[in-house]
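Predict the holo structure. Ligand: S-adenosyl-L-homocysteine.
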Amino acid sequence: MEDTIHHKQYRNELVKLLHEKGISDEKVLESIRRVPRHLFIEAKLSVKDMYEDEPIGIGQGQTISQPFTVAWQTQLLDIVSGDKILEIGTGSGYQAAVLYIMGAEVFTIERQKKLYDETKKRITRLGYSQIHLFYGDGNRGLPELAPFDKILVTAAAPSIPDLLVEQLRIGGSLVVPVNGGLQRMLKITKLSETETRIEDHGHFRFVPLLPGTE
Ligand code: SAH
């Protein structure tokens, strides 16, 4: 599949909607305008459906998050060019691509082998060279590559993942939906080795962060 004017028109409409819904970071909106979301979706859907503000199944019981959620989490991360980011829950790779297009170097972990393999191929095909994919249990993070400027969890964690907070640099922040059912979107900023600041940024619904790999 390719990216045409037609696809771009749908993306412009989506960006307009996200702006109306409260996404104000122009860099986030520009990235969503640029990343061809439809190329991350294997399901046979109309272009219109691929650009609705809705989550979409990507197989293995997983979803590509709703565009508003992707935009909201990205906005909370305050991305600056050159940021070193860890993402837990690669899924389709779309969120990683949005971060990459904003100038970040992205390290992303997926626990499902089939999704990991498919997404690895997709990211290579798209030529997104600063996205590094890892197959493994994201609960453990990537201690050998820490510290990270920012960490993003795209599945619901049962509680604040301390192991991930440890892998932040001082001043860095972690964005993570926490709790079962409906989750609170928390932003945890590491102020020093022992202090954090926790902010609550509304409620969302995510698939669960699971233990181990598959
Ligand atoms: N960010 C993705 C959407 C994520 S859906 C995108 O842009 O498409 C949540 C993903 O988290 C799923 O792919 C699921 O398999 C993965 N996941 C759940 N628990 C995990 C864990 N412990 N480690 C790594 N990935 C995990």
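Residues 5-204 form a domain with the Rossmann fold fold (CATH 3.40.50.150). The pocket of S-adenosyl-L-homocysteine is lined by residues 62-65, 88-89, 91-92, 94-95, 109-112, 115, 137-139, 154-155, 207, 209-210 (CB under 6 Å).
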